[in-house]
UniProtKB/TrEMBL annotation:
Belongs to the DNA repair enzymes AP/ExoA family. Coiled coil: none annotated. SUPFAM superfamilies: DNase I-like. This is Exodeoxyribonuclease III. Transmembrane segments: none annotated. Its EC number is 3.1.11.2. It holds the Pfam family Exo_endo_phos. Keywords: Hydrolase, Magnesium, Metal-binding. It comes from Sphingobacterium suaedae.
Length: 255
């Protein structure tokens, strides 16, 4: 089974790119982030036409997450992260697909640092850590897939010295990511490529993609049950080079 995540950066504006990638790569389960579409504007019919059913949590203009399934029955668990009743941002979705607990997240960016957006990010992470502590102990396989907006280590960013005061690379969020891993999660990509420079995001500016000046911020975390079944994984880097594409590339694992 192939499970993937892709920050599409606008599901309707990038729909031809998304449909092309789905058709070419045929992942079984897909997590999407940054839909930038209200609930009623999600392109369900177009996605179904290429063989996928969808559960989505949209939001006007920003945010939004979805889980797609090709041939497997899905059951929604939750679309809210506990701990803040006032948080209305569409960043979280849990779905059961073929016995696999799939958690799709779009963690807050947090910039500019310091400021209220960074404070919101830290609060969101604290709430998220409580849920990950529960999920890691489940007897069923669990994958947390999505855009974490966290650069875990210096190996995961081009010229790390320039990112020290960026909310994606602040010591607070890097330590939080480490604490989540210490709960028992496996970082799938780093497990498969322990010492390699691998990026999942390249800015649109300054020819970042052409210079390979990227970041690794899209992650796949596996609980111990699923980590034992990890076979392969990778980044569909070439998709970032397509016309009118997202600034992220799809990330995938095979179990």
């Amino acid at each position: 089974m192939k499970i993937a995540t892709y920050n599409v950066n606008g599901v309707n504006g990038r729909l031809p790119v998304l449909l092309r990638w789905l058709t070419e790569e045929q992942p079984d389960i897909v997590c999407l982030q940054e839909l930038k579409a209200p609930q009623e504007k999600f392109p369900e019919d177009a996605i179904r036409a290429v063989g996928y059913e969808a559960i989505w949590h949209g939001q006007k203009s920003w945010n939004g997450v979805a889980v797609l399934s090709k041939g497997y029955t899905m059951h929604e668990v939750s679309r809210t992260l506990a701990g803040n009743l006032d948080d209305i941002q569409s960043r979280y979705l849990e779905v059961i697909v073929e016995g696999i607990h799939v958690c799709c997240i779009y963690l807050p960016n947090g910039n500019p640092y310091p400021g209220p957006k960074f404070d919101y990010k830290l609060n969101w992470i604290d709430r998220f850590k409580k849920r990950t502590a529960e999920l890691v102990e489940q007897s069923d396989p669990v994958v947390i897939f999505g855009d974490f907006n966290i650069i875990p280590t210096e190996l995961d960013v081009y010229k790390p010295e320039k990112w020290v005061h960026d909310a994606l690379f602040r010591v607070e969020v890097r330590e939080a990511y480490t604490e989540i891993l210490q709960q028992g999660w496996t970082d799938a990509l780093r497990t498969l490529f322990p010492n390699e420079k691998i990026y999942t995001f390249w800015d649109y500016f300054r020819n970042a993609y052409g210079r390979d000046a990227g970041l690794r911020i899209d992650h796949a975390l596996l609980n111990p049950v699923l980590a034992k079944k990890l076979i392969a994984g990778g980044i569909d880097r070439h998709v970032r080079g397509w016309e009118k594409t997202s600034d992220h590339a799809p990330v995938w694992i095979q179990i």
